[in-house]
Amino acid sequence: MSTIVSPSVLSADFANLERDVKMLNSSSAEWLHIDIMDGQFVPNISFGLPVMKAIHKHATKPLDVHLMIATPDDYIDDFKDAGAAILTVHYESCPHLHRTLQRIKSAGMKTGVALNPHTPVDLLKDILHDIDLVLIMSVNPGFGGQKFISQSVEKVRSLKSMITETKAKTLIEVDGGVNLDTGKLLVDAGADALVAGSFVFGSENPVETIQKLGHL
């Protein structure tokens, strides 16, 4: 089974965003990863709803939206309207996570929960059946191009074991420091989807790089 590749548009050339989105459309990538940062939950600001709407206008693939924001509940409907197919919120920013997931689901999107590097996977055991996707952060969120945290491989393995044990259908996605070497380790440990930004857009042939990641 091939691995889902979700290239991070944050690493695209924003002066040529339409061109880069069309390149991803023509590639074997299954999703487009959209990182939303607010400068509060993470120490950086990326882009907001207007840019995401512009991406959605040209994208022919589902938008895999990762909210690194302090109050995601305030914007669920806005991100649905902007074109999100998957909406991933951080465990650390949702005090009433089950309720948040129900709201995402009722808005017609797939549910995702992201975990920072220090957050253990077993905290999700009781609600795994409500989660379509768990996003393991293999770097500290907020900036691209960071060094891969090797403990993430064991984290993926533990989560996969928990999913199998509970008979959940949850997918595992990993974001941060993903390349062909780390990607292979993650897929072997049980990852279903890989997010790659600078590794894809910084390569000589992004379409070929995406294809290689999908066949790890």
UniProtKB/TrEMBL annotation:
Keyword Zinc found: yes
Query: What does it do?
Result: Catalyzes the reversible epimerization of D-ribulose 5-phosphate to D-xylulose 5-phosphate.
Q: Name one Pfam family in it.
A: Ribul_P_3_epim
Q: Does the keyword Phosphoprotein apply?
A: no
Q: Which residues bind substrate?
A: S8, H66, G142, F143, G144, G145, D175, G176, G177, G197, S198
Q: In which pathway does it act?
A: Carbohydrate degradation
Q: Which SUPFAM superfamilies match?
A: Ribulose-phoshate binding barrel
Could you say which residues bind a divalent metal cation here?
Answer: H33, D35, H66, D175
* Residue positions of the active site: D35 (proton acceptor), D175 (proton donor)
Kindly state what the record says about how the cofactor is bound: Binds 1 divalent metal cation per subunit.
Q: Which GO terms describe its cellular component?
A: cytoplasm
User: What are the recorded GO MF terms, alphabetically?
Assistant: D-ribulose-phosphate 3-epimerase activity; metal ion binding
Q: Whose protein is this, by species?
A: Brumimicrobium oceani
**What is the name of the protein in this document?**
Ribulose-phosphate 3-epimerase
What gene does this protein come from?
Answer: rpe
Which UniProt keywords are present, listed alphabetically?
Carbohydrate metabolism, Cobalt, Isomerase, Manganese, Metal-binding, Zinc
